[in-house]
């Protein structure tokens, strides 16, 4: 991989017409070790957030020993780069053949579920392979309520009374049991974990069975940009969220229970930025070479404001407008699809024009992992960059990130 000090240096040297991902391994190591130090339990990285081999490898080297996986593709990706790592198979709804693969081939001994038919599926394979249920931990996924940019509790999770019954059933069979939840991605309300822990407490006290673990899932918010027009208060930073979570864990009486967290976004978001090129400027619209069907689907909901920095093409000698005036530009994606337009504008100098580049920061989560080949566009160029996106002074231009560099 080519190495540059900054994304700007990469853009000016490569003059790329295709999107370029800028990987910052040092930032990844810093963020994951920070998380592991602050969380009072085990850290299992959620592979779906970004399963690139360079990411998994860097995490394993940084000391991550557990990975949260959901499919055979993810089992293999982890095994390839970290043969000794433990895997937690936390998808509540699994194919029978995948359960077999997990137990038989990959030696996975931790799974999640939220329904009795899933217990039956698992038990069938446990019997077929003549395994002792006591060697396996089943986490019962409970419903949670909260506010996240991506709400996931509507899809998975047993209601409290149902969860009690599932815990008792699995315990009776001889499995070790735990409680897990996943509050959704990028929580937007700091009370979210506390409410989920309250539910877990209720379920535990009604079930009356020994708990082998409590898994608090993911959802930890990563830092993004700020829309200059937004009136919403800022979310507390990860440090504050963590200290509250530690307090709530004690408060609900879980400090003696083995704990696991499954962070994805907060670990990997800052580790990548993306260089895109302006293919055409039409008034206050910019047509770029990436979009919602490639690296930018995560921002499509409008709940996430991506920070961005302007990289003017020095080859352009004539420009219109005032470079000091920052204006909102509508950003249209590369495909011919009319929904391929970002829901939030990028705030950039008025002088931005065809041929310029934009570096979009904090793009490591749910970007590479969600890109499609739609319309034949598939960004897949990587370089290594040594300077963090938000290092140094204010960027020359930005999309809704006023606090950058302050
Ligand atoms: C997606 C997912 C995660 C990671 O969520 P982030 O918000 O990226 O931290 C963790 N656990 C489960 C079960 C998930 O589905």
Automatic annotation (TrEMBL):
Signal peptide: none
GO MF annotation terms: ornithine decarboxylase activity
Residues covered by the Orn/DAP/Arg decarboxylase 2 C-terminal domain: 270-362
Biological processes, Gene Ontology terms: putrescine biosynthetic process from arginine, via ornithine
Coiled coil regions in record: none
Domain spans labelled Orn/DAP/Arg decarboxylase 2 N-terminal: 39-269
UniProt entry keywords in alphabetical sequence: Lyase, Pyridoxal phosphate
Cofactor needs: pyridoxal 5'-phosphate
Active site: 336
Entry-linked Gene3D superfamilies: Alanine racemase, Lyase, Ornithine Decarboxylase, Chain A, domain 1
A single Gene Ontology CC term: cytoplasm
Modified residues (N6-(pyridoxal phosphate)lysine): 48
Family as reported in the entry's similarity comment: Belongs to the Orn/Lys/Arg decarboxylase class-II family.
Record's protein name: Ornithine decarboxylase
């Amino acid at each position: 991989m080519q190495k540059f000090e900054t994304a700007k240096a990469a853009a000016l040297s490569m003059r790329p017409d295709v999107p370029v991902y800028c990987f910052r391994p040092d930032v990844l190591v810093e963020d994951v070790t920070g998380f592991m130090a602050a969380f009072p339990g085990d850290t299992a990285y959620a592979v779906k957030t970004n399963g690139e081999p360079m990411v998994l490898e860097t995490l394993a080297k940084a000391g991550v020993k557990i990975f949260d996986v959901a499919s055979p593709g993810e089992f293999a990706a982890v095994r390839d780069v970290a043969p000794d790592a433990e895997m937690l198979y936390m998808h509540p709804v699994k194919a029978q053949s995948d359960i077999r693969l997990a137990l038989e081939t990959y030696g996975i001994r931790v799974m999640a579920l939220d329904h009795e038919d899933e217990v039956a599926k698992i038990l069938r394979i446990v019997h077929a392979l003549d395994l002792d249920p006591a060697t396996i931990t089943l986490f019962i996924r409970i419903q949670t309520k909260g506010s996240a940019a991506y709400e996931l509790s509507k899809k998975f999770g047993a209601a409290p009374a149902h969860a009690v019954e599932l815990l008792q059933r699995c315990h009776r069979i001889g499995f070790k049991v735990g409680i897990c939840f996943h509050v959704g991605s990028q929580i937007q309300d700091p009370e979210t974990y506390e409410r989920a822990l309250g539910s877990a407490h209720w379920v535990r006290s009604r079930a009356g069975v020994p708990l082998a673990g409590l898994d608090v899932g993911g959802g930890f918010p990563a830092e993004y940009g700020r829309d200059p027009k937004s009136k919403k208060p800022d979310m507390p930073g990860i440090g504050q969220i963590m200290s509250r979570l530690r307090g709530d864990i004690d408060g609900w009486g879980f400090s003696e229970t083995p704990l696991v967290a499954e962070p994805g976004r907060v670990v990997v978001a800052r580790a990548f930025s993306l260089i895109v090129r302006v293919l055409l400027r039409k008034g206050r619209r910019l047509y770029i070479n990436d979009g919602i069907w490639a690296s930018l689907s995560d921002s499509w909901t409008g709940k996430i404001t991506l920070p961005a920095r302007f990289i003017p093409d020095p080859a352009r000698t004539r420009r219109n407008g005032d470079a000091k005036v920052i204006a909102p530009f509508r950003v249209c994606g590369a495909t011919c699809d009319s929904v391929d337009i970002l829901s939030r504008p990028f705030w950039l100098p008025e002088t931005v024009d065809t041929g310029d580049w934009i570096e979009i920061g904090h793009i490591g989560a749910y970007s590479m992992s969600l890109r499609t080949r739609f319309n034949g566009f598939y960004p897949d160029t990587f370089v290594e960059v040594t300077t963090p996106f938000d290092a140094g002074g204010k960027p020359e231009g930005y999309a809704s990130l006023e606090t950058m560099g302050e």
